[in-house]
Design goal:
- The complex is a heterodimer of chains A (about 60) and B (about 240).
- With about 60 residues, chain A is an all-alpha fold.
- In chain A, about 80% of the residues lie in helices and about 0% in strands.
- With about 240 residues, chain B is mostly helical.
- Chain B has one domain.
- Helices cover about 80% and strands about 0% of the residues of chain B.
- Chain B starts with 8 loop residues before the first helix and ends with a helix.
- The relative contact order of chain B is 0.16.
- The chains are: A mainly alpha (about 60), B mainly alpha (about 240).
- At the A-B interface, helix 1 of A face helix 1, helix 2, helix 3 and helix 7 of B.
Chain lengths: ~60, ~240
């Protein structure tokens, strides 16, 4: 069976995998930034939980 | 650190912050090696070069099912043991499991067209995997619809336990019914039927995708814990100003 006959299907499958995995990874990373930014905003406004690490600590740990 | 210590969200965050860079690096390295092995793997004697689609399709299928399996254990953790990280795990894993199930369906369809002559048939294996994707979407919708996280967790846990019935149906569908899909060829009594020249790159790709799954799940759990902190702080802020 010639590879060239089906090369389009193979490329499409790998392109779909890159799109799905890339999209998922980007979404998880962006979500992390959004949460850190929200915590930083609340920090600035002086809203803090007793045992919660500050945004600065969270960034240092990361 | 004992495993039980990770039940504390703050300790889990510290663990995730330390583990994620290493896990991410390891995932990239294993992927680089696995993709190289997959690209140099020989063509199948019947399916030709399209066997390369299997290196994406099979890990996608496994991890789609593993995701729901994890959510099932987490659902028990929510309903029975009320473990503090159980519903965090379930909520974080749902979109990741859905993405891998979607990958399985898309690559399967692209593999089916040249091999079977069709992108889709309503047979038991394909339909039960589509049902799994719909179950994932249902759980994600539930989490987004119910505002109170503890109520959403209980509702999602019940749906997850009911949906777990689909896992053995997916696994044994090729044995119980006549389907276009091939029977099990890796996890079966009597050992794999795949030649090592293809089984080794397949196993490496499965390992790489599993590492990616673990990395993303850990990162998504960290995000969910932070999201809950943000929610708590906003509620505190709102009650202080009212």
């Amino acid at each position: 069976m010639e590879a060239s006959t089906h090369i389009g299907f193979i490329i499409a499958a790998y392109a779909a995998a890159i799109a799905i995995v890339g999209g998922l990874t980007a979404w998880v990373m962006l979500d992390y930034r959004v949460q850190l930014r929200s915590l930083a905003d609340l920090d600035r406004k002086g809203v803090a939980r007793r045992a919660a690490p500050t945004t600065k600590q969270a960034k240092e740990d990361a | 650190m004992a495993l039980i210590d990770l039940a504390n969200p703050t300790r889990f965050l510290n663990f995730a912050n330390r583990a994620l860079p290493w896990l991410g690096g390891l995932t990239v390295l294993v992927f680089a090696f696995a993709i190289n092995q997959a690209m140099v793997a020989p063509d199948d004697y019947q399916q030709g070069a399209t066997v390369k689609i299997m290196f994406l399709h099979v890990p996608g299928a496994w991890l789609g099912m593993v995701g729901w399996g994890l959510m099932t254990v987490a659902a028990l953790g929510t309903l029975v043991w009320r473990h503090p990280l159980a519903d965090v795990t379930a909520k974080a894993v749902a979109p990741i499991g859905a993405a891998f199930t979607l990958l399985c369906l898309i690559t399967g369809s692209l593999w089916g067209r040249p091999m079977w002559g069709t992108y889709w048939v309503w047979d038991a294996r394909l339909t039960s995997v589509l049902v799994l994707l719909l179950l994932y979407l249902g759980v994600i919708a539930l989490w987004r619809t119910v505002e109170d996280p503890s109520r959403a967790a209980r509702a999602a846990a019940i749906l997850t336990l009911v949906g777990a019935i689909d896992l053995p149906i997916i696994k044994f569908s090729v044995d119980w019914w006549n389907t276009l899909h091939q029977p099990a060829s890796v996890f079966r009594f009597g050992g794999p039927t795949i030649h090592p020249a293809i089984l080794i790159p397949l196993s490496l790709m499965a390992l790489a995708f599993t590492l990616l799954f673990v990395t993303l799940a850990l990162a998504a759990m960290r995000n969910e814990i932070l999201r809950r902190r943000v929610r708590t702080l906003r509620l505190m802020q709102a009650s202080a100003t009212s």
